[in-house]
Design a protein that fits this description.
Strand content: 15-25%
Number of strands: 27
CATH class of the largest domain: Alpha Beta
Radius of gyration: 34 Å
Structural class: alpha+beta
CATH architecture of the largest domain: 3-Layer(aba) Sandwich
Largest sheet: 8 strands, antiparallel
Shape: elongated
Number of domains: 4
Distance between the termini: 68 Å
Number of helices: 24
CATH topology of the largest domain: Vanillyl-alcohol Oxidase, Chain A, domain 3
Helix content: 25-40%
Length: about 800
């Protein structure tokens, strides 16, 4: 009986060809990956540098510009030169966006940190507001002086602490306003004001606790006190008894320097009261200040395990705390005040993060609030790590005072997820706690996530409208902004966005403006190929492999610019990889063919252009023009194949003409097949062909264009906002890039495009002098392969600067290539 598979049987020819095709496809795919790996991916400018975030990593704000002033004059000049919104940040410890505003000039005050003068005789120190408390401690400790009031941790800046009117564990000291002698304030107009309790007193009580809403704090003079030895004592007691214990044993004890009570989670039924009293006893710890720059892996691990380990809280309460507090400890006031906040830093904040909230309760209502807090924690089950209770005396009169009498601060430290659902859940229990604290006549602290409603805010801060009235007088254009101010006293941006929401204004993800750049390169490159052919150069001289490299270079650069700033866009990234690999395979095949058989047949010909060359060039021109406006897969390839075969078959250059017909037909037939098979991927990338883009514009009265000048064709006004700004709708792609410069030339300024503050623009540069402009950042350069005298530059442009950018490009003699409309 014959065997089913004879070793000597011939394999079908089709099977052999199929294996060759598969092998070639694998080889070309590997080659395209090799080109990708070698492609340059270095950005000239990283948008990540404009991303301002806080210590929790929950609030991420893309600003227009970050500047780090080093002198008061720097601040004055920056404010005078910039006309848009301004935000101010120090150590960025506030946790709800209080340090930033979208599309703002962000002043990073950490470079404004000089110790100006130490006055031991009068016990005062003058510093620039960006100095940290640790900077002050380093300057004061040699004089045996100490900070009077500050937070527990020394990393925060003086200006930031003043802006939130911070407090710490200092017994009987109240908020930080109690230590401020006087300070400078730089207003929105760049005016420098001297501020104290007697000079510009309204500003004194508005700026302190004003969250940067009235101006920039300049140099500050603070009262300081003597450094001293302090000894620690602790007492464990029922949590409900702490209020009475404090009143009887601590409140009137003038020797107490630091004091707080830690309520034990998860039931908060017991508390450990911790007091540091002034003493003449010798030091048991000889270290003057905690060393800077230490790592705290053990502390971080213990915090994480305490909240996540099944018996973590019991381990902490019954074993770790007794061991930790068993030792009698005598140290200096400065040492106890020099803690580094990095000891709380978790290993990662990617999926979860550790956050604070704080609630202020009148001391007389402590016992009433405690069970309310317990009930809310039991109901919502947040991951509470610790609740610390601290005492503060009454605020002397700041407009946004949180201590209107003797107050216990309940400082809640907890772990939460970083996803939207987790943030929303925190908002629920936080608002419940705000209601509970308002019921007992208390308030809540503002440096944290802005979950409370506007009604809760106004109940908690009854003088808020006085503050906002002062802001309108001092900052009439409302330039100083951040998320807190914008939420509770809507900024021009917030008012605009609310009006747009009523009209269902169509927004697009801003990150797409970056990701569309490599995709659009596959529009520019076919055009460059046509320019190459029309210049009379042969197909085999076109740099196909370099085109592949340019695509992957732009892909790597734009992805680098996108990642870490915008949410992951997996579907779009998959599309870019698919079209990148397929284009790489196509171009590498063409390079291999044109530089072998193609060149051979060209040399066999006469060297003159044939009718087939002209027909093929026209087909490529039609294709390159079509894909500027329509999805590539909608192009009709087959009619062009038919057309090339309508050219006379016989005649001069027969071999070359026939070879061109066969090669062109194979290319366009394969493209037609590929378009039908992978149309879904291209549909994802390009979107509907008739989609339009909405944008907000305004036309200043100073515009040189006639006030009644009509809009460009295909642009239409949808409606006007109460502020007088217009909402327009434009077609996408080629027409968008044509109409936007026309609007700019007509005097229009752009407010936002599809809800976004930034957009990518590419320019074709000519001549020897490169395009230079201060209103945007150059992301990358890319070669124009068909014309060595030109360069393509890709720019990150604030939408509010787009008109200036376009006018400057025209003025310098460069050509706008494309505005990447998301």
């Amino acid at each position: 009986m014959a065997k089913s598979g004879k070793s000597g049987a011939k394999r079908p020819l089709l099977g052999r060809i199929g294996k060759v095709v598969i092998f070639a496809a694998i080889l070309l795919t590997v080659a395209s990956v090799a080109v990708y790996v070698k492609a340059d991916g270095e950005l000239l400018f990283a948008p990540q540098s404009l991303l301002v975030t806080d210590i929790t990593q929950l609030s991420r704000t893309q600003v227009r510009e970050v500047r780090r002033p080093r002198s008061t004059e720097d601040i004055v000049q920056l404010l005078k030169a910039h006309r848009g919104p301004v935000s101010i940040g120090g150590s960025r410890a506030s946790m709800g966006g209080q340090i930033a505003e979208r599309d703002s000039l962000h002043l990073d005050m950490r470079g404004y940190n000089r110790i100006v003068h130490v006055d031991p005789e009068h016990k005062r120190i003058t510093v620039q507001s960006g100095a940290t408390w640790r900077d002050l401690q380093d300057a004061l400790d040699p004089h045996e002086l100490s900070v009077k009031i500050m937070q527990t941790y020394s990393n925060f800046t003086v200006g930031g602490s003043m802006s939130v009117n911070a407090h710490g564990r200092y017994m009987g000291a109240g908020p930080v306003v109690g230590s401020v002698e006087h300070f400078q304030l730089i207003t929105a107009s760049g005016e420098l004001k001297e501020v104290s309790r007697t000079e510009n007193s309204e500003l004194f009580f508005g700026v302190i606790g004003g969250y940067g809403g009235l101006g920039v704090i300049g140099e500050v003079t603070l009262d300081v006190v003597e450094n001293s030895h302090v000894a620690r004592t602790t007492t464990v007691l029922p949590a409900e008894d702490y209020g009475e214990y404090f009143a009887k044993n601590i409140r009137n004890d003038s020797s107490v320097i630091f004091q707080n009570a830690d309520l034990h989670p998860p039931d908060f039924l017991s508390a450990r009261s911790i007091s540091w009293r002034k003493t003449q006893a010798p030091l048991t710890n000889q270290e003057r200040l905690i060393a800077r720059g230490q790592s705290y892996p053990l502390t971080s691990r213990l915090i994480n395990d305490t909240v996540n380990f099944p018996f973590g809280f019991a381990l902490r309460r019954h074993i770790l705390e007794p061991i930790f507090y068993a030792q009698d400890l005598v140290t200096t006031r400065n040492h106890e005040a020099s803690y580094d906040v990095h000891e709380l830093e978790p290993k990662s904040r990617l999926e979860s993060t550790f956050v604070l909230r704080e609630y202020f309760v009148p001391t007389s209502r402590y016992r009433e609030f405690l069970p309310k807090m317990r009930a809310i924690f039991e109901h919502y089950e947040p991951k509470i790590v610790n609740v610390s209770v601290r005492y503060a005396t009454a605020d002397p009169g700041t407009l946004l005072a949180w201590a209107r009498g003797e107050t216990f601060a309940f400082v809640v430290y907890y772990e939460q997820g970083t996803d939207a659902q987790a943030i929303a859940q925190v908002g629920e229990w936080s608002r419940a706690l705000v209601d509970a604290v308002l019921e007992v006549g208390g308030t809540y602290y503002l440096p944290y996530q802005n979950h409370p409603t506007r009604e809760q805010f106004l109940r908690a801060y009854p003088r808020a409208n006085e503050f906002f009235d002062l802001k309108r007088r001092l900052d009439p254009e409302l330039r100083f902004q951040n998320s807190l101010l914008s939420r509770y006293a809507p900024s021009p941006r917030a008012v605009r966005e609310a009006a747009l929401a009523k009209h269902d204004y169509r927004e697009k993800p801003e990150g797409r403006t970056l990701l569309t750049v490599p995709e659009w390169y596959l529009v520019w490159n076919p055009g460059e190929y046509v320019e190459h052919l029309e210049s009379g150069r042969p197909p085999d001289a076109f740099p196909f492999a370099e085109s592949v490299r340019e695509y992957w270079s732009l892909y790597k650069k734009m992805r680098s610019a996108h990642d870490g700033v915008y949410p992951e866009d997996g579907e779009y990234m998959t599309t870019l990889r698919v079209i990148g690999v397929s284009t790489s395979v196509e171009y590498l095949l063409k390079a291999a063919y044109e530089n072998s058989l193609g060149r051979l047949f060209r040399n066999l010909g006469s060297g003159t252009a044939s009718p087939e060359d002209r027909t093929i060039g026209a087909a490529h021109r039609a294709y390159s023009t079509f894909i500027y406006d329509e999805p590539w897969y909608a192009f009709q390839f087959l009619p062009h194949v038919k057309k090339v075969w309508q050219e006379p078959f016989l005649g001069s250059n027969f071999l070359r003409r026939t070879e061109r017909k066969l090669f062109f037909s194979t290319e366009f037939l394969l493209k037609a097949l590929y378009a039908s098979l992978l149309g879904w991927a291209a549909e994802t990338a390009y979107g509907p062909g008739e989609e339009r883009v909405q944008l907000v514009v305004h036309r200043p009265l100073t515009s040189d264009a006639p006030p009644s000048a009509p809009l460009p064709a295909r642009a239409r006004e949808l409606y006007r906002l109460p502020s007088g700004e217009s909402v327009l709708e434009l077609p996408r792609w080629r027409e968008f890039s044509e109409i936007v410069p026309l609007l700019s030339a007509s005097g229009y300024e752009f407010i936002n495009i599809a809800g976004n503050d930034n957009i990518v623009v590419s320019v074709r540069e000519g001549g020897t002098k490169p395009f230079a402009v201060a209103s945007a950042h150059k992301l990358a350069n890319s070669r124009v392969l068909s014309n060595s005298s030109q360069r393509r530059s890709v720019w990150w442009v604030p939408v509010s600067n787009l008109s200036t950018f376009l006018r400057e490009a025209t003025k310098q003699g460069h050509k706008l290539e494309h505005v990447y409309d998301y």
